[in-house]
Amino acid sequence: MQDLIGRTLGHYRIVEKIGEGGMGVVYRAHDERLDRDVAIKVLPEEVAADPERLVRFEREAKLLASLNHPNIATLHGLEEEGSLRFLVMEVVDGESLAGVIARGPIPICEALPIALQIALALETAHERGVIHRDLKPANVMVNSEGGVKVLDFGLAKAFDPEKSGAMSPESLAESPTLTADLTRGGVLLGTAAYMSPEQARGKLVDKRSDIWAFGCVLFEILTGARPFRGDTATDILATIIKEDPSWESLPVNTPWPVQHLLRRCLEKELRRRYRRSEDCARRFRDRRGQRRQRRRRRAVIDLEKTVAGAAVGHRRGDDGGRGGSRLGGVSARAAAHAGPSCRGPPFESPTVDNPL
Length: 356
Hints:
Elements: E1 8-9, E2 12-21, E3 24-31, E4 36-42, H1 45-48, H2 51-65, E5 75-81, E6 84-90, E7 95-96, H3 97-102, H4 108-127, E8 130-131, E9 140-142, E10 148-150, E11 157-158, H5 169-173, H6 197-200, H7 207-223, H8 233-242, H9 256-265, H10 277-315, H11 320-338, H12 350-353
Antiparallel strand pairs: 1-2, 2-3, 3-4, 4-6, 5-6, 7-9, 8-11, 9-10
Helix pairs in contact: 4-7, 4-10, 7-9, 9-10, 10-11
């Protein structure tokens, strides 16, 4: 594909290349009309004349346009310039989750707010009838404040939300993620290490495949390693189908509800896996609410004890120093519980309630 850096497509001036994948090349560009930076995703020229690929490209635009959530990259428009067709999207600054994990496991107090934001993004997509089908750390961006954006719904497939959520053979045959040669035999979509068992077998998939991928991502966040590994894609797929993750590699401080969630997400039997992404998000919300209630109860008890102690000291004629020190101790303890550091409860973080 020709180098577009320095060129202008409409009122978008191409600044630099920031990525490339099966769905095209991604550039950072400057919108001269609105004076803002955007991401331009250009369909490769060698496939631009392919009607099937064009349908896939336009289908992606429509799917992305239906999603509006702070944890999903926003689509601004679908445009064309001469023979080029391109998506205009929100440019997402930060680092990919894959890059963060490459430095080692993420502490649980930071990992769980990130996982919650991914779950919320999937929840919104699934409510709109969109399956990501290629969720992985490389498709998740994390900014310096812990805010998350899920990228690249390029392999997303709409399904009928009024039905079971599974794709019929007819709709699968018309899926924008397939090409003619892929429809002859097993259909393998997504990245092997994050594929669900049904994806690995080339069977019909529904949103539970995203839930499996979410479990893989969460496991990798906590341990720094993928749950299913192998020397080749074939080895990885065989491991996914036949073996279980190394549960003992989870951090010793992983809360039991989180371990339970992981086991349900990575359940090979579809009927035992979580059916909806909102089940995952609710687990995090419930846990966060329980932590908050316990912390508030502790704060009230501490306050009552302090007030009672101060009253006793006043009646005994004690100086104010002791009462002041106890109040200071309570304040320090409350700050330790309320703060977003790793010493506090892992489900409390400002990035959850206001992720970006």
